[in-house]
Amino acid sequence: MALLLRLPTICPPSRHSLHLHSTTRNTMALNSPKHYTSITTTANNRKLPILLFDIMDTIVRDPFYHHVPAFFGMSMKELLECKHPTAWLEFEKGTIDEVELARKFFKDGRSFDLEGLKNCMKRGYSYIDGVEELLHVLKTNNYEMHAFTNYPTWCEMIEDKLIVSRYMSWTFCSFKTGKRKPDPDFYLDALKHLEVDPANCIFVDDRMKNVEAAIAVGIVGLHFKNAETLRQDLSLMGIDVSG
């Protein structure tokens, strides 16, 4: 829905060059963000604030919760009970590859069709209702946006299918940094990379603990519930969501 951007080297794609509604007031009270206008820096004409987005279940529907249990012929409860407690987290942090993930995904070491799982995941990737339209508007209005995601190398499959890079850069991916939200260092590293004051960043995530971690380091945090609520929250903060 906008100009195709090249993914930065921190998370290269395979084919293409990351409750505060009644909460917005709560967020503003917790974090005291300014009401943003069309702020730019004098050095490079950079428009502020910078927007950081969680990906799974904020931008893209997470197939793990919607499709993967059926792939294994299990309920979600059964899947959670028999999967290895840390294998996926290790995969997200880049400490194991997908071959090792397949070896230890289940606590009992049972084998499964890894390629079938990947195809299941890819079929399940889709934009959350209304989110792509909002991203298009924000991109058209020249806001700088970055993914800030806990996800493994399979972000490449998301990019291949949905081309998220039309709207934001895959700048902060846990599998490359070795850090996951809500680790404060992940947020602080992002601020250092962006060379921006935390109050000039807005972070959006569907998990409150990740939003709270952002607020703790001075970033403005918004708890994602749906696209319309996010649009309203951003508008109340002075973000231009017209168009």
Automatic annotation (TrEMBL):
InterPro entries in the cross-refs: HAD-like_sf, HAD-SF_hydro_IA, HAD_sf
Keyword terms of this UniProt record: Hydrolase
Classification via Pfam families: Hydrolase (PF00702)
The keyword Translocase belongs to this UniProt entry's keyword annotation: no
Entry annotated with the keyword Chloroplast: no
Organism superkingdom: Eukaryota
GO molecular function annotations of the record: hydrolase activity
PANTHER family: ALPHA-D-GLUCOSE 1-PHOSPHATE PHOSPHATASE, FLAVIN MONONUCLEOTIDE HYDROLASE 1, CHLOROPLATIC
Name of the molecule in the record: HAD hydrolase, subfamily IA
Lineage: Eukaryota, Viridiplantae, Streptophyta, Embryophyta, Tracheophyta
